[in-house]
Specification:
Oligomer: single chain
Strand content: 5-15%
Structural class: mainly alpha
Order of helices and strands: EEHHEHHHHH
Helix content: 40-55%
Low-confidence stretches: 115-129
Mean pLDDT: 75
């Protein structure tokens, strides 16, 4: 795919690494702008591509996205251009991560389920949790943790606040 960024044609191509694509794609649940910048850096081909590499950031998609954003802003690329191109790259990264069958399974998921297959191995059509379900759970968890952190800025202590889930408390007490 060719796109224009700052009056220059650039080539975007999804990387072959499923893991890198998944990490960058799912990072949008935590910080969309950095995720889009990371996708742009990951998909940009050619000599004008950002110099930052995902491996240099220990495969941390958000750290990598920040480095790509900083590098491009330092080159004078407007943030809006970076994010617009990044969304297109992010969509490229997402292609093929979740199959149509998995989406259909997620849409048709019910807790009741057919018990006639009890004891058998789950097929692709009958799995309890699809990648889409897992992504939504991760996104929801990240959102709740971010809300807790935002609400508690300047109020953090070394002990878990009352009525806080263990998951949120782990995030609360972390340095992240």
């Amino acid at each position: 795919m060719q796109i224009k960024i700052q009056n220059a044609e650039i080539v975007l191509s999804a990387p072959s690494s499923y893991s890198a694509r998944w990490d960058v794609y799912s990072a949008a649940a935590s910080n969309p702008n950095r995720s889009f910048a990371a996708a742009l850096g990951l998909c940009w081909r050619g000599p004008t591509a950002p110099k930052a590499r995902l491996a240099q950031h220990k495969f941390d998609a958000l750290s990598y996205g920040g480095a790509v954003m900083d590098e491009l802003v330092a080159r004078g690329v407007p943030v809006a251009d970076i994010l617009n191109a990044g969304v297109q790259a992010w969509n490229l990264c997402g292609e093929g991560l979740i199959t149509a069958t998995e989406v259909e399974d997620a849409e048709n998921f019910s807790d009741g389920g057919d018990t006639s297959t009890a004891g058998s191995s789950p097929s692709a059509e009958s799995t309890d949790k699809t990648r889409e379900d897992q992504t939504m759970l991760i996104a929801d968890s990240n959102l709740r943790a971010a809300e807790v952190r935002k609400a508690s800025r300047g109020k953090r202590t070394s002990r878990k606040p009352d009525n806080m889930s263990d998951e949120a408390a782990a995030f609360w007490l972390s340095d992240g």
